[in-house]
Known about the structure:
This protein is an alpha/beta fold. It has helices at about 10-15, 60-80, 100-110, 130-140, 150-160, 170-180, 200-210, 240-250, 260-270, 320-325, 330, 345, 350-355, 375-400, and strands spanning about 25-30, 85-90, 115-125, 145, 185-195, 215-220, 260, 290, 295-300, 310-315. It has a ten-stranded mixed β-sheet with strand order 7-6-5-4-3-2-1-8-9-10. It is globular.
Amino acid sequence: MADEWPIGGLDVAALTVGGWRPHPFTQFVLKVHSRCDLACDYCYIYTLGDSTWASRPKVITPAVMRAAAGRIADHCSKHELAEVMVVLHGGEPLLAGPSVIREVAAVLRSALPGHTTLNLQIQTNGVTLDRSMLDLLLGLNIKVGVSLDGAQPQHDKHRRTARGTGSYEHTARALKLLSSPEYRAIFAGLLCVIDVDGDPVETYETLLSFSPPAVDFLLPHGNWTTPPPNRAVGDPRTPYADWLGEVFDRWYSAPRQETRVRLFEEIINLTLGGASVSEQVGLSPVACLVVDTDGSLEQVDALRSVGHGAADTGLTVFGNDFDDVLRHPAIVARQIGMAALPETCMDCPIRHICGGGHYAHRYRRGSGYRNPSVYCPDLTKLIGYVTGRLRADISELLETT
């Protein structure tokens, strides 16, 4: 991949001479445990071609904790950051155990400068999330995001244990606790990987039954070389746009806002001239950095779906300042906005909303990431549908005022 764009072809020095400057990192994914207690069939860590996890320590060490916290603190001081988010991740982070989670939180909070607020979260499959762990997370003010793929048949189809049994009942039990008044203050939201074979409204309403403050619908990872499910290259059909369109109608037409759906909110915000904070759409500079259990500094995990080592930078918390990472061509490519898009996107009227789609979904062997998303037909249709409804409502509102 070294000869593919952006590692091959992106001139960072020329960009800098031309006046481009990097955007500092404001979100850090800290891997605290590199193994998992589920065997999800779509997992980008274990099943999609990257085996980096096998050579990494199972549990983050105190040395990596301290080094990562120190680098984050230096970055906050250097760039005068008022707030940063740190997400404890895996594998399955709860497998690290209470003592590691407690220590990580303490090390981070003691390291950060006084002018920086720490937003600490954990992303879990929920299988082992019980009352005692929730008490710990509540006491540490660590917000909790949980992965749930909708109704039990759809969830258990993909999110199974190593023995092949479903995990829905365990996750649902944890979510009932998390959404209760006792713990709701630390409920961050739900992640749901889309399966177009499942009923979209039933999926949404199952998620809604746990009263999440926010829902993230994620497109299954794939690219032009290894297409995702139901998205054959050259196929004009739009199964994901059709599925999401039904969810949008249910969400948008509700008499009151029942939850936030980030993908829809991002499209609406971008349509109205705002900026994006999601990787799925928009052209805002990427501001996320991953620290693995051995201290390796990596790009977002989704890039593991491209192939072995696709997320690597070759840098570590022990040898590199985070500004070193900001000058890495793979990171720079995620921060230069429209300049990273291929010529085929330049004439597209929604390029500022779509932004080329998720970066991992643009990969094609031979040309790298200088391509539109493999989901281009779906994104085009979905964005057109959402913006069409929005514009119709705005026009109607203006006519009545």
